[in-house]
From TrEMBL:
Lineage, highest ranks first: Bacteria, Bacillati, Actinomycetota, Actinomycetes, Streptosporangiales
UniProt name for this protein: TIGR03086 family protein
NCBIfam families on file: maleylpyruvate isomerase family mycothiol-dependent enzyme, TIGR03086 family metal-binding protein
Any coiled-coil regions, as ranges: none
Domain Mycothiol-dependent maleylpyruvate isomerase metal-binding: 16-128
Organism: Streptosporangium subroseum
Length: 195
């Protein structure tokens, strides 16, 4: 498995969804707790910029991790930030270099990029659910992301308010891999915006 390829594919499917976002969508709720769509898109741009800077320097200040700007074209802001992170992880030695990921700790680049890939694949679904467009990652991408995420801690101290993920949502054991991934990361595959 080439984690760079998995990450690029996650960025691409999220980006294809973000291309459908219109200005009047930005205040819509999302499956991500208190974030509106505008807040979620800012988070995605910030995360891309943070991962890129941390790969280049070993770490990045909080202002970078939280400083993403959408300007008047959220899709362009996202695409620019996606190019940054893809370029930052392109060098041959990038996956072996240590980098600090926010307050979560220091990881080898390949682990950091695994976190990034899964996060963006699932956040792409968050965007799609908020604006009501289809989102269908291919089976290989969904299976790989589920395999990566299933290795992450699933304990009360790592879930809920203030944590990286919400409390696990039970989905049927025979559900498709992507639905199982959503449930594992605290999302109901049946989420729709409140009326």
């Amino acid at each position: 498995m080439d984690i760079r390829d998995i990450d690029r594919r996650s960025l691409q499917i999220a980006g294809a969804t973000i291309a459908h976002v219109k200005a009047d969508h930005l205040d819509r709720p999302t499956p991500c707790g208190d974030w509106t769509l505008r807040g979620l898109l800012r988070h995605l741009v910030s995360e891309n910029e943070g991962f890129a800077a941390a790969m280049g320097n070993g770490s990045a200040p909080r202002t970078v991790w939280d400083g993403g700007r959408l300007g008047d074209d959220p899709y362009r802001a996202y695409e620019t930030s996606a190019e940054l992170v893809t370029s930052a992880f392109a060098p041959d030695d990038a996956l072996d270099r240590d980098m600090e990921v926010r307050e979560f700790g220091v990881f080898p680049g390949w682990i950091a990029l695994s976190l990034h890939a899964v996060d963006f694949l699932v956040h792409g679904w968050d965007v799609a659910a908020a604006i009501g467009v289809p989102y269908e990652p291919d089976d290989e991408l969904a299976a790989t992301a589920l395999k990566i995420a299933s290795r992450w801690p699933d304990a009360p101290e790592t879930r809920g308010p203030g944590a990286a993920f919400d409390t696990r949502v039970e989905v049927p054991a025979d559900a498709p891999d992507f639905q199982r991934l959503l449930g594992f990361l605290g999302r109901s595959p049946r989420w729709t915006p409140p009326c």
